[in-house]
Structures are given as structure tokens and as C-alpha cells.
């Protein structure tokens, strides 16, 4: 089961929302925070893949929050298998750089 002692949802990364932009004068997409400016650039030779990658990166803070909420809700309700708990715990650890 999930170890709830991992505590509350704590994020060290730049908080969301992150926005995805394609500027005409650049070859890539820029991921930015509305107050802090540019966070990352995403480049790929295929324009459709580049745009999809950029959208995925821009969604990262929301995805992290959703994973943690589902992880905690399932654990609280006792509705998670050990395999699912491990996958989710590994994902959260990867996101947090552990």
C-alpha cells in the first residue's frame, strides 16, 4: 500500500500554470510561467511532435498534482493494489528527483 507518511503535496518546481507558446521567430516552443517568464524550450524536427511534447511539458505541474491526489485518495480509500502503489510512488519520486 501507499505510504501516507510521504506527507502533503510538496512541489519544489516552479508552480503552475505553465503555458506553451510557439513564437514565429523561433524554431521551438517555449514553456513559460505567467509571472516568471521562460521555463524551458522544446525542439524536435517534426513540428507536430514538437507541439505535442511542448503541451506535455506545459501540463507537468497539473499532472504531478493529479497523480499525488489520486495516489492519496486511493490509499485513503484502500482501493490501490501494491503494483499500482509502486508505479505511482516511483513516478512521484522521479518527479521529485529522488
Description:
This protein has helices at about 45-60, 60-75, 80-95, and strands at about 20, 30-35, 35-40. A 3-stranded antiparallel beta sheet has the order 1-2-3. Helix content is about 45%, strand content about 15%. Residues about 1-5 have low confidence and may be disordered. The chain folds into 2 domains: about 15-60, no CATH class; about 60-98.
Reported for the largest beta sheet, the result is: 3 strands, antiparallel
Order of strands across the main sheet: 1-2-3
**Helical percentage:** 40-55%
Taking pLDDT < 50 over at least 5 consecutive residues as the criterion, the unreliable ranges are 1-5
Radius of gyration: 16 Å
What distance lies between the first and last C-alpha atoms, to the nearest angstrom?
19 Å
Please tell me what the overall shape is: elongated
Strand content: 15-25%
Task: Return the average pLDDT rounded to an integer.
Answer: 82
Secondary-structure class: alpha+beta
Number of domain modules: 2
Features:
about 100 residues, alpha+beta, 2 domains, 3-stranded antiparallel beta sheet, 3 helices, about 45% helix, elongated, disordered N terminus
Helix and strand topology:
Blueprint: E1 18-22, E2 29-33, E3 37-42, H1 47-58, H2 60-77, H3 82-95
Antiparallel strand pairs: 1-2, 2-3
